[in-house]
Amino acid sequence: MSEIIKLDIAYEDSRGIILDIFESDPKDHGALITFNKGAVRANHYHKLSTQYTFLVSGTLAMRTAKVDKNGDFTESIKEDIIKPHMLITHRPYEAHAFEASENATILAFACGLRGGKDYEKDVYRLIMNMFDK
C-alpha cells in the first residue's frame, strides 16, 4: 500500500522554511502538476516505476489499491486525505488516483520510465474511475 510520510521542516527562520523532500535518492523524472478544484488526476498504475508524490499546496483525496498484471483490483480501494508536506510512495502495481477538494499543486517524481517521450511507456490507465466506486 502507499507509504505516506508527513515531512518535517529541516530549518526555519524569518526568510521561510527548508523542507527536504528526498535525501541521497536520485529520481529519473520530476514534474510539477496543478489541480483545479474538483479535478481527478492519475487513475493509473505502473508496472515498473515507483512514483513519489509530494503535496505542495491544497488538499487531495487519494484512492489506492493493488492491481494485478491486467489492472484488475486485488484488494479494496483505500482512501486517504493528503495535506501539504506529505510525501506518498506508489510502488509498482498500485493503482492511484487523486481528487482535489480545492486547488492544489503536487511535485511528482519517479524512478523508471516516466519523463518526456517515455511518459506513457509505463502508465497503465484504469478503465474505471477510482472515484466512481
Notable features of this structure?
5-stranded antiparallel beta sheet, mainly beta, 0% helix, globular, 133 residues
Can you describe what's shown?
The chain is mainly beta and 133 residues long. The chain is built from no helices and 12 strands. The strands form 3 sheets. It has a 5-stranded antiparallel β-sheet with strand order 1-9-6-11-4, with no helix packed on it. It is globular, with a radius of gyration of 15 Å.
Reconstruct the topology from this structure.
Blueprint (H helix, E strand, L loop, with lengths): L2 E4 L4 E3 L2 E3 L10 E7 L4 E6 L4 E8 L2 E7 L11 E5 L3 E5 L3 E7 L3 E8 L12 E2 L8
Antiparallel strand pairs: 1-9, 2-3, 4-11, 5-10, 5-12, 6-9, 6-11, 7-8, 7-10
Largest sheet data: 5 strands, antiparallel
**Span between termini:** 18 Å
Strand-residue proportion: over 45%
> Which word captures the global form?
globular
Rg (C-alpha, Å): 15 Å
* Overall pLDDT metric: 88
Could you give a short description of this structure?
The protein is an all-beta fold and 133 residues long. It is built from no helices and 12 strands. The relative contact order is 0.33.
